[in-house]
Amino acid sequence: MVETILDIRGLSKTYSGRGSAPPVTALDNVDLQIRKGEIFALLGPNGAGKTTLIGAVCGMVRPTGGTVMAFGHDMARDWRRMRARIGLVPQELSIDMFDKVHRAVAYSRGLFGKPADPARIEEVLRTLSLWDKRDAQLRALSGGMKRRVLIAKALAHDPDLLFLDEPTAGVDVELRRDMWQTIGRLREQGVTVILTTHYIEEAEEMADRVGVINKGRILLVDDKAAIMKRLGRTEASFALASPLGSLPAALFGYPVALEDGGRSLVFRGGDGSGLGKELVAEIAKLLVTQGIDFTGIDQHESSLEDIFVRLVEDEGGQQGASGGLAA
């Protein structure tokens, strides 16, 4: 049985409205369990509640209701000791720009009561390709390097659970790939990682499980493969040589429709298991046997991003989905 390292039950957070404005619900009765050693990706549009959820676990936001159990302990009662086992890479660059890299990272280790360990600090800096910059002031670093320093500070006290809030925001593709490799190595070392990201390919490539949050509510949590199978679908458009006035009887029962004035036959159905591809092949054979010529097939399998957008839109979150996926 897989151990639950973080158990969130009924977590809520409501902010009082300013002036005559109504209260704002940032978290709405959130239940979420995180397994030891996994990489969990939390996806959601702007204002969905991702950063508020992280803040509630890490002690920066006081919840209105609910409980957070970390490592079997109630965070509200044993916050200081449990927080020492949690690392956080915030979305914002909250660092002293005049400090030097090595000193900033070493200081973070001391904040959590860990004894000085120059060898460990060197190891962290080398892992993140920061060792050559150890004596540089933070203000002299690029945006990507500053982001790496934030990760180094979060790792300095050897946490068992690591939160990464948009860890690769503003980072170029090469540095982003390096960070993915670093996160993968952390998982191999037994660190549990929870990340929010607006690069859904990160979730597709790295996460064991994925959660979707919108308007403070968890819409979905499942293994990545299970999500793709349950909510994925195939879309295929047959470009017909001649327009059809109506759907042939042989295609009744298939999830197809005529579009573009009868010039396209569009299939939407199946799931992420390959059923959709089989049905598209059947439809192609039926068209041939019915003497209906087509000049091409444009076929597309759902990505995790397609599923995410559909979920958010189904919840009435079209504006959030079009506005990006950042926290």
UniProtKB/TrEMBL annotation:
Gene3D superfamilies: P-loop containing nucleotide triphosphate hydrolases. This is Multidrug ABC transporter ATP-binding protein. It comes from Croceicoccus marinus. PROSITE patterns: ABC_TRANSPORTER_1 (PS00211), ABC_TRANSPORTER_2 (PS50893). Residues 6-240 form the ABC transporter domain. Keywords: ATP-binding, Nucleotide-binding, Transport. GO terms for molecular function: ATP binding; ATP hydrolysis activity. Coiled coil: none annotated.
